[in-house]
Amino acid sequence: MAFILLENINQPNDIKNIEKEKLPELAQEIRDFLIQNISRTGGHLASNLGVVELTMALHLTFDLPKDKIIWDVGHQSYTHKILTGRKDGFEELRKFGGMSGFPKRSESDCDAFDTGHSSTSISAGMGYVCARDVQGEDYSVISVIGDGALTGGMAYEALNNAAQLKSNFIIVLNDNEMSISENVGGISTYLSNIRTAESYTGIKTGIENTLNKIPVYGDKLIRGIRNTKQGIKQFLVPGMFFEEMGITYLGPVDGHNIQKMLRVFRDAKKVNGAVLVHVLTKKGKGFGPAERMPSRFHGAEPFDPETGLPKVRKKKAAYTDVFSTVMCKMGAREPKLVAVTAAMPDGTGLKRFRNMYRERFFDVGIAEAHAVTFAAGLAAGGLKPVVAVYSSFLQRAFDQVIHDVCIQNLPVVFAIDRAGLVGSDGETHQGIFDLSYLSSVPNMCVMAPKNKWELADMLKYAIAYNGPIALRYPRGEAYDGLQEFRAPIVYGKSEMLYDENGLALVAAGSMVVTALEVREMMKAVGYHCTIVNARFVKPVDEEMLDYLAKDHRLVVTMEENVKNGGFGEKVLEYYNEVSADVRVMQVALPDDYIEHGNVDLLKKEACIDAESIFKEIIAQYQQ
Length: 623
Fold this sequence. Notes:
Helix content: 25-40%
Strand content: 5-15%
Strand order of the largest sheet: 7-6-8-9-11-10-15
Radius of gyration: 27 Å
Distance between the termini: 59 Å
Number of strands: 17
């Protein structure tokens, strides 16, 4: 497919050389380019298709990298990357060593802020504005935030702060009625009312059309009306939320009409203070399958660009699917069981539970901190809440885990999906800290299953447990081996899989599979090898550790978590306390952030793959 106009976009601001009449054609080329490339590599499609014209209008209005555009979450920055001269990078999008799927300051001066989690852009933009003003500099700051992200409390903290500004700060509200799934809550209803307020939009359009007919002064009158806080919208839409906070509101404007957005952005630049531009877009715009199923094309695997169907069909159930099935079965047995998600019913596997037990399902929006404290209230009120959340996102609620759940020792279950390395989304999404931060909290119990059968057993155990408990499991296909090893779950007890001597591999969760591979390698060169499935990261099975110390010269701990504060450090600490005559080798991720890429390749780079572990064990033996 030929991309004629895109050939002229090779560096920032090249879009300004494109003739006005050809901008719609450029928008179509960008959409075709995105569909063609993401169908091969996978990536965030629907959100990017929805902001093509919005991004073009921003780049036409502002000068990069002087002006600063901050993308909330950042997965919708693909068009921004194209317009800043990075279209060739899409060949290696989200691959190891390739271009990130998110803004990266280290990748381009046009990426003002690294963003991977939601509801952050207004706070970061405020920081830029104040840094600009303190240093007497002159540039525009634009924070782009989605309506889904406005369910996060941090966004309101920032809006409250922004209302005090006396210098220009532009907030672009990209309103597509979606986060990953459909939006929920009061702000969604409020924005919906603005979108559909025909009495407002109709009269507003009529007044503008009339004023446009007035020679010379008509356009000035329209701009004056737009820029005053006591403008016509105050009379026609009472109680304007943003205006009453002290933030000038402009819009709503069609986010697929470049010329209209150019006009409103020019007006926004003139406001001395914070100004919110409300832009209406359609997620998945221009690609039928993504328009019909935006959630499925939020983070898409490679697909057929003609049909939208995945190129590779899943053969085995994922851990998320196993969790989903058990939750539905337990919902029938346990009338007090309830499920909580932070805008991720599909991703966490709670969609089926929602359909079966709607009155016991709660989607709180992109608000993880609220989700945890809300769950604490549910537990205090006599229910049994399961909070299903990605490992990376639970970090946002660490304070609530401590203060609202664990101090009160409330029976909240944390079902932690995407634990460990998740791959293509990179540093902000790798779930590599949960074992460390959760096991540091008193009253918390932390488990990790070796396979799908153990995940089912552990979830049932967790639902029956009377206190805070976390169950972490990885992304992707659920391991179905070792089915013959299914001893009952007993608090704080590990599981002996193979009992030999000399060398013991004590593995947590997903690393049990790797331990099996290492064992085969060790046996092939003549070494005995014990394997212990840790099961519990907190508490550590001290009785098992004592047993291993009797006839094993080397104990290797294995975890898909950072070394600092992880499972291995707890084992080492225990052996040091009891002065055990045993050497401990810790296999864990380094004290670093892990970039995007294929998970198997990332494991190899981090030296937690079977071959790397085998080589290190042999080196230890030779010392």
